[in-house]
Design brief:
10 helices, Double-stranded beta-helix, 19 strands, alpha+beta, single chain, about 350 residues, about 30% strand
Length: about 350
């Protein structure tokens, strides 16, 4: 399955200005071959971050594509309003969360589309994934901002999808190239997410029309119980560099991730209706535990977890870098924004 991608809006900062105050740049890690992330800190008489970004132009875009992500640190970002001011530097408004896989809440009702990072229980980890990579439309960039650090833990672990792809066995990659990945979701209240939350409507006909526009199989089982299925590529070329990257929810949505969360052995058989989500090969055949574990090991080999400092901004190229969340203690507050709509070439943003 050969993917093609279109981009709606650049989401790039304005053209570079030669007279901008200086910043310091260096890879966060010293280990050889590990670029992610680039660390940017204020230089002498350090600039206001929003003002610096407005003149960053192609310099920032090139850095982001090369490194896969940027950590801004030490720029005196203290509030959701400060973060929103930073996000206004880009030639696009933050995107809404559509076709949801987890509940979302805006951090400040007066600021549109700046969200709390997640409402997932803080004792649990969130496995690595690329935001909305299961969808026909996804954000090219995802940005996290630390307003308040956790007492313990709470990192946003990240991994370079190019390196993850390289570390998955060639035989398994060949299967995904040929077949793609099938996503299956059981939309049932109290199991995962109700269809009303997923589709952001209470009108069943609107949800069904959405699925039809986006080539998603829609099965009405009974009241408030819907099964949806669709197929996508698991590997994508980056729209700027053309580099191939592992861009999907294969591990995140797979039943073995749920088994791991529940402490169940891999040979346990949980009825399908008790799985909020599952992934298969595009022809409907099962992904074995050995194949699933191959992917898990590739992520683990490349994972990077950076303890947050107050005011940190982690700016990721969503197609190049996966992210997750470590468990934490304390009153952690991370907010997030999405920009730059990308979509599979046969689908348009208006389909959403």
């Amino acid at each position: 399955m050969k993917p093609e991608t279109s981009v709606a809006g650049s989401g790039a900062p304005t053209p570079a200005c030669k007279d901008r105050p200086p910043v310091n740049k260096r890879p966060y890690h010293d280990q050889e071959g590990q670029l992610l992330p680039l660390l940017i800190t204020p230089g002498e008489n350090g600039p206001d971050l929003a003002e610096w970004m407005q003149g960053a132009g192609d310099e920032f875009r090139n850095d982001l594509t090369r490194f896969g992500g940027v950590l801004f640190r030490g720029f005196n970002i203290r509030s959701v309003e400060d973060f929103n001011r930073f996000m206004k530097c880009f030639n696009t408004e933050p995107l809404p969360y559509m076709f949801r896989s987890s509940p979302r809440e805006e951090a400040d009702k007066s600021i549109k589309n700046i969200y709390l990072s997640t409402s997932y229980p803080n004792k649990r980890s969130i496995k690595l994934h690329n935001e909305s990579s299961y969808s026909r439309v996804w954000a090219g960039k995802i940005v996290f901002c630390c307003i308040r650090t956790a007492e313990e833990g709470g990192e946003t672990p990240i991994a370079d999808g190019r390196k993850v792809l390289n570390d998955i066995s060639p035989a398994l990659i060949a299967k995904f190239r040929a077949k793609g990945v099938m996503y299956r979701r059981n939309l049932i209240p109290d199991l995962g997410m109700p269809w009303q939350e997923v589709f952001q409507t209470n009108d069943l006909s609107e949800a069904e029309a959405f699925c039809k526009r986006n080539n998603i199989t829609f099965k009405f089982i009974e009241k408030d119980y819907i099964v949806i299925e669709w197929v996508k590529p698991a590997i994508y070329p980056h729209p700027v560099s053309g580099e191939e990257t592992w861009f999907n929810h294969v591990m995140f949505f797979n039943k073995f991730s749920r088994y791991d969360e529940l402490g169940l052995p891999p040979d346990y058989v949980l009825p399908d209706k008790f799985l909020a989500s599952h992934t298969l090969f595009g022809d409907g055949s099962e992904i074995s535990f050995e194949e699933y574990n191959d992917i898990v090991k590739a992520y683990r080999k490349n994972i990077i977890a950076i303890p947050y400092q107050q005011g940190d901004i982690i700016f990721l190229d969503n197609m190049l870098s996966a992210h997750g969340r470590n468990p934490f203690k304390g009153d952690r507050l991370i907010v997030t924004a999405l920009i730059e709509a990308n979509y599979d070439v046969d689908y348009k943003p208006e389909a959403f």
